[in-house]
Design brief:
The structure is a homotetramer. Chain A is built from 16 helices and nine strands. By secondary structure, chain A is of the alpha/beta class. The interface between A and B is large, with 68 and 68 residues. Chains A, B, C, D: It is found in: Mitochondrion.
Amino acid sequence: MAALFRGYRNFYKRSNRHVELTLVSCRSMASKTPVGFIGLGNMGTPMARNLLKHGYPVIATDVFPESFKELQDSGAQILDCPAEVADKADRIITMLPSSPNVIEVYTGPSGILKKVKKGTLLIDSSTINPAVSKEMAVAAEKMGAVFMDAPVSGGVGAASLAKLTFMVGGVEEEFNAAQELLTCMGANVVYCGQVGSGQAAKICNNMLLGIGMIGTAETMNLGIRLGLDPKLLAKILNMSSGQCWSSDKYNPVPGVMEGVPSANNYQGGFGTTLMAKDLGFAQDSATSTLTPIPLGSLAHQIYRAMCTCGYANKDFSSVFQFLREEGV
Amino acid sequence: MAALFRGYRNFYKRSNRHVELTLVSCRSMASKTPVGFIGLGNMGTPMARNLLKHGYPVIATDVFPESFKELQDSGAQILDCPAEVADKADRIITMLPSSPNVIEVYTGPSGILKKVKKGTLLIDSSTINPAVSKEMAVAAEKMGAVFMDAPVSGGVGAASLAKLTFMVGGVEEEFNAAQELLTCMGANVVYCGQVGSGQAAKICNNMLLGIGMIGTAETMNLGIRLGLDPKLLAKILNMSSGQCWSSDKYNPVPGVMEGVPSANNYQGGFGTTLMAKDLGFAQDSATSTLTPIPLGSLAHQIYRAMCTCGYANKDFSSVFQFLREEGV
Amino acid sequence: MAALFRGYRNFYKRSNRHVELTLVSCRSMASKTPVGFIGLGNMGTPMARNLLKHGYPVIATDVFPESFKELQDSGAQILDCPAEVADKADRIITMLPSSPNVIEVYTGPSGILKKVKKGTLLIDSSTINPAVSKEMAVAAEKMGAVFMDAPVSGGVGAASLAKLTFMVGGVEEEFNAAQELLTCMGANVVYCGQVGSGQAAKICNNMLLGIGMIGTAETMNLGIRLGLDPKLLAKILNMSSGQCWSSDKYNPVPGVMEGVPSANNYQGGFGTTLMAKDLGFAQDSATSTLTPIPLGSLAHQIYRAMCTCGYANKDFSSVFQFLREEGV
Amino acid sequence: MAALFRGYRNFYKRSNRHVELTLVSCRSMASKTPVGFIGLGNMGTPMARNLLKHGYPVIATDVFPESFKELQDSGAQILDCPAEVADKADRIITMLPSSPNVIEVYTGPSGILKKVKKGTLLIDSSTINPAVSKEMAVAAEKMGAVFMDAPVSGGVGAASLAKLTFMVGGVEEEFNAAQELLTCMGANVVYCGQVGSGQAAKICNNMLLGIGMIGTAETMNLGIRLGLDPKLLAKILNMSSGQCWSSDKYNPVPGVMEGVPSANNYQGGFGTTLMAKDLGFAQDSATSTLTPIPLGSLAHQIYRAMCTCGYANKDFSSVFQFLREEGV
């Protein structure tokens, strides 16, 4: 009822350009109608499973048949292609590795938009270029559907435990509808603004993370060279103005913390290639908005150079090892 | 008594090279004998006043007579030069602006070491090159005195409220003696290792701080350009892996936080020149230890370039303004 | 005749996918048929005038009517829009400020491709993203036309004196045809490879130029601070391994050379904004090809930061002034 | 006679502080009295041999006896230590690997200054910190001797062929005397100014060289990734504003040029460690003079990081290999 009311309010406030919002808001939010899920990789599978756990029927697909099995066993219905999913569900979540995949899944020959129904809510949790998110939103709007970007912070572990953070961009009127589903999969769901804002927030966070990690690695290395004990130095930084997430929660120096990639030869975690990819988006966004990002650019280049020196698949905190003379 | 025992233990453990430690440890720690204080600037004056508050007689000096007045009114005795202070006190704290001042105050013609008594405890809270701290320690040891470096984290406010953090380097046996005095002036007193370690820890902290601040400024600026609300972006970063002290406690974007320099046109706080100076120490230390510090170097260069563009005396968080197109 | 023969050879060698090349090569290269010219700015006008001087009738257009006058007086025929030019000429040169202008002029509603004739040779001398050049080539090929990119090195002076360097990308068989026209406007015409290669070469050159200029400015400034005479230092660099075009031909220090922007308060020359734009293309290309360009990135950021500090419209060699403490 | 006259002129002009210059200038410049040479390494041995070729008796020493043999066979007299050389020769050249060696050879227990004669001309061709050169000059002046710094540009090949460039700092009145000897060993002898200026010029040149080489490597790599032929790209750069010594005379891409380290798996040439060392001097000088050198700093860090990744002993142009994904 609240949703209906909201729909009417929008009707009056925003004139007939958005008249279809009334319809959109008629999507049932109370009963658990099927939810589409496209992209059943390391992240997508546990995310979709958390929807099932909350009682939502899931209709899914993926280009790789071997990705189906696990979710099928958990009770999901598997279809052939995104278009068929769109034919059966009016709420669809996508979780894909890169911009071209997103473009294909939405606008390709058997893509979502081929059969999408008016009023369908499309939530893309992939991390992609914000410009692509905006293009998808325009394409969806032409079909009467609503596209929101909702990239995540947190890895496979957080996905399994439903502890992801979702950064959501799109029309504010639809945020509640998105939140209903996203809270099944994450601990935090933050509304960031218009379409693309979720990606923007994700990019910003990861740029500062990427800078902070290299800064922490340099600082720890310098301190060790100057004779300081690494654990003591980490303690001092963390009680002072040098503190950051990388020094505090994910220290890159082996022996300082347990349960982080540096304690496990930099395996697992967030690969250097992925960090380089995200900083590439930051770089693109900065170039196109004429924004100077000197440290962000240099961090991007350092992760890029690491990829040339054998660190591509190690956790990005291996920059500590990359910078140590004795390291390699 | 414990102190005496500690002295004997050292005697046996470390052989006669450190036999004078027995004497050193005979310095009374119970009764409040006078404490020397040299360097009565913005930081030194409130620090010395806190010693007075704790009941220690203070014997002080400074090269600028106008610096005396305030502390004299608070009850300190003012002498002509460091040598005279050393003649009257067997515990001396120095708080000076730069390496040459420290060299002059310790080894100059009317410096401390001209009249220092055997067993005197010398604590230098200046932020200087760790190499100079080590030289001073050697010179002090020749006269039978003990030198410790104890630079501070925290500004004038923290000095007044006795909330400084001291990072202490020097012989471990003397740490308790130093701690007795330093706890009157600070909230945290951390033992970092041999002489110079305090400076090393300070340099490391400030390098990571300097990097984190520019990283935060770039990130906030990029986010704003991409359409994000600054307060919202700060909130997202601070709940995610981008979090750092600069984003969380000292945000450089006007309007995001109260009570920080960015809320006051970047006045007060920690001047860009001072940050550039500290990063110069980091650079020197990295060069001499062959340690790569790519982001630290670039941060140094950015603060240095800011000094050429009119930001020398603004708080270092004004890097946000420096990087904004509309800023200047 | 050679051209015809070349056409046949291609016909056999490359199969019917390129059968239209036979037609293309039938464009008369001996008689001086009209040449289209679109974009009559500071560069385009003198370029088009040089075509007139060589006896080519010129049919031109520009969005700004005030740009017409000068060329019209020199004997060019002015038409309303690019489509009309394409209707009248089978060789067209475009010289436009940015990628969106190029896209509009070629593919817009009254763009060249609306009325382009089969076999028309399209030469774009704008400096744009190589990816856009490739898109234009694909679009032109669909209409049976041939697109080549031919960005220039050299400024307004070189354009007037027909001393430009053209870096040409496109099918090799058409290079002679392009060269016939380009030699009227430039001293060097270099074939670089497939479409987009001209832009790639231009971007590479300007990236190294941008790095060399900042490097020269830093080096000269450091030497001056160390007590060296600037003219003497320039002389030493130029006879040693530090030599580069910026130290040798375009020294950024006032008083070292005559006839360069540093001798004229950094007026004229190549604006900082334009250098920042070109380095943005370098950055984009590097990001998309996963190429590390640490100095190129930092140079980009420095020119970008200069734009925030009042140097946007000065010659890019003003980076010397930006880096000097006394400079501002 | 001219020398004598010059001596008198100085006597009157510069007052009795420099009265000893009269004596200095009495050193015979016509007859070939013995020249001391200390430091018989890869550079020193061919340099000293060139003095012998020009008819100067050479009195030499080195800490490593195995270094003696070659020069002894060429006719040089070998003595035990620098002090003994100073006892026998009133013109001495030193060519040593680093600042501590220079300090030892001049001021150590059996150093030059122990037995130096009044008026002796001391020429140090080592590449060291300019601050150390100045200290040595002060120490020499106390003994009545004259110290000049004269570091070289050019490697072992240039040393053998007497094609070195000498950059000379020191009192101008003594430049002719230094030049007499240096022209036997080099093709260019450039007077740079007061003591330390030779080092300053060397540092400046090598900083710009170090920047230019990385810039060239990045640019060539980017161009290759964008599809350009490396030889063609080098040709384009070298005829355009991107030209620099590294692109033109010492191209870092295998296959572009013959006779350079890139044609020989980066063996020989100028080691990455040595470039990192020289950029360390640049960094120190910049830090102490508060000069921003953003690209110089980053170049320093990149060569430093290369040392951590197995490139320490390769020619510094191997930065091209370091930056290529397929490279390692």
